Amino acid sequence: MDETELNVAMDRYASGDASVFAQLHRALYPRLHAYLARMRGSAHVADDLVQETFLRMHRARATFARGASVVPWAYTIARNVLIDYSRSAKTRRTEALPEGDAHDPIDTRADTESSAVAAEAARTVERVLARLPVSQREAFVLLRYEALSVHDAANVLGATPAAVKLRAFRAYEALRAELAPLAEKASIEKAPGAAKPTPPILRRDGGGPSRPRGSDDDT
Amino acid sequence: MTTRELDPFADIPDPLRSVGERTPPEPRLPVEPSPTRGERVRRLWLAVLLAVVWLVAFAAVLGFRPDVARAEVLGQLAAWTLALPLGLFVALRPRENGWPPGVVALRVALVGLASVFVGLAVFPPAGAQAPLTFTTVRGCLSVTFLLALPPLVVAALVLRGSFLNAPALRGGVVGAVCGLAGAAAIHTHCAVVTSSHVLLAHGLPIVVFAAVGAIFGLLRGRV
Q1: How many angstroms away from the CA of A46 is the closest CA of chain B?
Q2: Where along chain A do the CATH 1.10.10.10 domains lie?
Q3: Is the full-model pTM beyond 0.90?
């Protein structure tokens, strides 16, 4: 379902057509879940947050303006859910997990196919992202992993496009600095015909961005 | 990426890449009812109508000032009345791309609403003067709060959970509009033109209701 069809479906949903909810859910769930998981560092928390996001989208469907784009609208609502969750998390009792178990495990299929350096790089990225200021993390995640345009990301974050780019670049510099030592010992090669190519580390010859769900040609 | 300057971002691997491939659960439509776009528009117009009827009826019951038909007084009332839909327009109406007005527009609206009231109150027409005392202020102040409160309550009921972003600012603008509506309504009754009286007894609710609106927006206004 391309974005134009999604926008039409949301428009119909806002006007009262409940039959399109399933289409919207199927199209948006993976993206919103991935975004929430990256921001919170936990797929289990993301499970709950994405359900809350869809509930709020349902409650606020009447506010979806004609001519609007549903993807950044949905991301904004997901971000609002994150904000409320973070605020309530400060008063919620939590127990710190042992180092290394705090987040869901990285895809083990990837671990068998890529080197230990690539896995360490992924964990480093996860750790650095968690340490970044929220504003920088948000901007970087939306641009790098969620593949939003700068304009859409600016609308989601309520900032100017220039501010969003600046925040994202600061995050990128922090990540790059942490990954630089790993790049020295990286020896990752893309296996010909591999179903799941190995993610690059600081490689400039084609580390593609995450695409909307369903795309397998990231390298 | 849509801009080449962001191309370097592709170097950074995705640590949660597998998470995005999770199969979504079976979609279940939420059972709680939610208004459609058409229903929301009707509710908004109904809220505006109720507010106008309340203000006009209350002002009529209070009685109009003897000089209400004077050009200077009508000019003040007209300016303040025109500022009301403009403020709501800025706070609520989506732009062409479907997004609500941004933070800059909301701040301009807040400053504009305050400026139009203060600007006309500071340069009053000739008329009845009254010293600034508790006795001379309390009557108008309490009535102005009473005039502006129902519109604020109705706005809160209709707009809760509908602000996509900047909920505090957006709520503040709506609150200021309700306060200004009360100030304009009391001004149709109270003939005192002393700037201090108008600013405090008629204008203080604008500030208070803007603050109340901002708090409500922050707590209950966000989608």
Answers
A1: 10
A2: 112-206
A3: no
pLDDT (tens digit per residue) in A113-161: 556 777 788 888 988 999 999 999 999 999 999 999 999 999 999 888 9
Q: 101-130 in B: which are within 8 Å (CB) of A? A: 102-103
**Structure tokens of B127?**
């008329």
User: Does residue A31 sit at the B interface (CB-CB below 8 Å)?
Assistant: yes
Judged by a CB distance cut-off of 8 A, whether residue B219 touches chain A is no
Summarize the confidence of residues A165-181 as an average pLDDT: 93
Model confidence pLDDT, tens digit, residues B66-103: 999 999 999 999 999 999 999 999 999 988 888 888 88
Tokens of A215: 């795309």
What is the location of CATH 1.10.1740.10 in chain A?
3-89
What CATH number belongs to A3-89?
A: 1.10.1740.10
* pLDDT of B39 higher than 90: yes
Assigned CATH for A112-206 = 1.10.10.10
Instruction: Categorise residue B161: left if φ over 0, alpha if ψ from -120 to 50, beta otherwise.
Output: left
DSSP state letters, B108-173: HHHHHHHHHHHHHHHSPPS-B-----HHHHHHHHHHHHHHHHHHHHHHHHHHTT-BSS-HHHHHHH
| Residues forming beta bridges with residue B222, ordered by sequence position | B163
CB A64 within 8 A of CB A70: yes
Least CB-CB distance to B19: which of A33, A109, A140?
A33
Cβ contact, residue pair A158, B166, below 8 Å: yes
